[in-house]
Amino acid sequence: MGYFRLLVVGNGISAYGSYLNLVALNVFIYDVTGSALAAGLFMAVRLATNFASGFVSGRLVAAHDRKRLMIGADLCQALSLLTLLLAPEGTRATLLYFLAVVTGGCSTLSQVALRSSIPEIVGSEHRARANGLLVVGRSLAMIVGFASSGVVVARYGYSAAFALDAVSFVVSATIMFLLPLRTRAKAPAQAAESGPEEAAGATAWTVRTLLRTAPLLMVMIAVRAVDGLGSSSHNIALPLYSHGLDPGHPATFISQFWATWAIGNIVAQQVFGRVAKRTGRTPGEQAFALGACVMSAGFIVVFCGLPTVPAIVAALIAGAADGFTETVYVTRLQAAPDEQRGRLFGLSASAENAGFGLGMLVSGALLETFSPLQVVASFHGLAIVLCVVLLLVSLRRAGAAAPRRKEPAGPDLPAVAEGRS
């Protein structure tokens, strides 16, 4: 795990630059174009790229060296930011959409490659702990990135923010290059020369195949897509809700919310990592469903108009449950064979980005008519319903499998392919 901790540092540094840039770019677009539509179009292009690149990333990760893909993705993002910095001012508005495509595609590729590589980097038995460390690193990066963005832009300008982001990607790529990491079970050439079963998995990984071989995994991916709807709803509703609480200082509650959410996320990862290390067990579908229910319920409670302290407690619980479910989800998907893992995470990335992007559009439209509580409760309520379905199906399958496990093993008994809680 020693080398992996350095990888977490590098990933956290690039994540810091991304969060810093997320704020700086949104303000920069509006300043350059003077159009809220242009800013919205930039986000739409990036989200569309995130969605489309999930499928492409899955194929690339399955066929090529993952370490090189992650290094290349970081360097491409750094180069695109450098191009924006050096471009004449008159061309920057057009280059912004090129930047949206590059950053959207490369960030998804890097995420799919990294998540697919974790079992090979740290060993399958340590993947839950490793995933928790990555979540902690990103949570800390989010806090620092959002907190420092206003200071960096106000004091040093947009160019400094973009340059800092580019440097963060270079640092991340350098750390990745220097670390002696094994990112896959076999070399791409070996994978390509494997038998017909591996080749079919590399070329025909479809939703239909997944439904037939691992239906619970398909339901988990669907839950994550609906979670994306819920996440977009509270992201868009939060500024409106905060303004209603304190029109003079709307940023106060937003800052409290995200800081508390991140603290809950970090605490959950620490507890999860220690419990997993002590017990040697990894939670499965049932724990994921319960955690997602708690997370969505926590976000709904935040918008119920409670006093500050109870609302912050709800945000803390939502953050803890959010971190827990993400780690359980990623760890569960990583149990898939290495040759299938890349396409599985590519499909997952596309589903999550599709849910978030659709939620951004629908939530914004609904908030013109309905209150933040109504919108957030509707989207997160849908996630709770789907989680209950997942929990019931998982319990039913576990109950049906229990009698078979008590019987003596015979040649006609199929192996259990799915994880259990």
From TrEMBL:
Residues 1-398 form the Major facilitator superfamily (MFS) profile domain. It is a multi-pass membrane protein. Keywords: Cell membrane, Membrane, Transmembrane, Transmembrane helix, Transport. Coiled coil: none annotated. The chain crosses the membrane at residues 7-30, 36-57, 135-154, 160-179, 373-395. It comes from the Bacteria. The keyword tRNA processing does not apply. It is found in: Cell membrane. InterPro entries: MFS, MFS_dom, MFS_trans_sf. It holds the Pfam family MFS_1. SUPFAM superfamilies: MFS general substrate transporter. PANTHER family: MACROLIDE-EFFLUX PROTEIN (PTHR43266), MAJOR FACILITATOR SUPERFAMILY (MFS) PROFILE DOMAIN-CONTAINING PROTEIN (PTHR43266:SF2). This is MFS transporter.
